[in-house]
Amino acid sequence: xxxxxxxxxxxxxxxxxxxxxxxxxxxxxxxxxxxxxxxxxxxxxxxxxxxxxxxxxxxxxxxxxxxxxxxxxxxxxxxxxxxxxxxxxxxxxxxxxxxxxxxxxxxxxxxxxxxxxxxxxxxxxxxxxxxxxxxxxxxxxxxxxxxxxxxxxxxxxxxxxxxxxxxxxxxxxxxxxxxxxxxxxxxxxxxxxxxxxxxxxxxxxxxxxxxxxxxxxxxxxxxxxxxxxxxxxxxxxxxxxxxxxxxxxxxxxxx
Length: 255
Ligand SMILES: Nc1ncnc2c1ncn2[C@@H]1O[C@H](COP(=O)(O)OP(=O)(O)O)[C@@H](O)[C@H]1O
Ligand SMILES: [Mg+2]
Prior knowledge:
This protein has helices at about 45-60, 75, 80-90, 115-130, 170-175, 190-200, 205-210, 230-245, 245-250; strands spanning about 5-15, 20-25, 30-35, 65-70, 95-100, 105, 140-145, 145-150.
């Protein structure tokens, strides 16, 4: 599982984010952008963050480190803002902490990644069906003159159907990806070569290790998903079946 720390102080909200993320100090003296379990989008967006961010990191794409942040009732006690207090009270338990990159700024094209790095990010987004990386919402930060990928909560959208529909990996595998609005499309070189290089690295063991990072209490059961282990296997199967069907989703088409 992700390293687990205690949240010791809520510092300030990050007003830019749609999900009301906030900055929290941790028991390890770190500073984290926390994505709260009690925010409107629910636990599945936290799972998508850990799975897609975890895949990215293991494949050499720069992503901030992630931890599980345990929040106790006490953290809400000194919070004056009522909206934040409600959010903190609804978020007692494990939340996602993303290492805060101090001084970073939102991607504006002034420090583009190399064409190879850009192509890796486009490939990751196509593979995981992440539509949330456009000029309107780049979800890329520039830190120390390099580009870091953040916010993978919109990926793996298929899981939002799970409470009522059984998992359907073949359907996800066949889902096309529209890269035409991707913020890095103009910078990226050949995404098909990236697939040839990265796909063999995404083994069943690597996928299991990524899913092993997800805290068990975030894995919601549903139709055909009796327990957290079944949920983990369903994610693994969706990823591996889609990986083997690049013709459906790879920008530029499969070779
Ligand atoms: N690790 C980080 N370091 C510094 N700033 C961050 C970090 N993560 C997010 N932010 C800032 O917070 C904003 C919202 O974060 P994001 O993960 O995109 O959340 P949301 O799901 O609400 O869109 C980002 O646009 C960025 O400005
Ligand atoms: Mg965002």
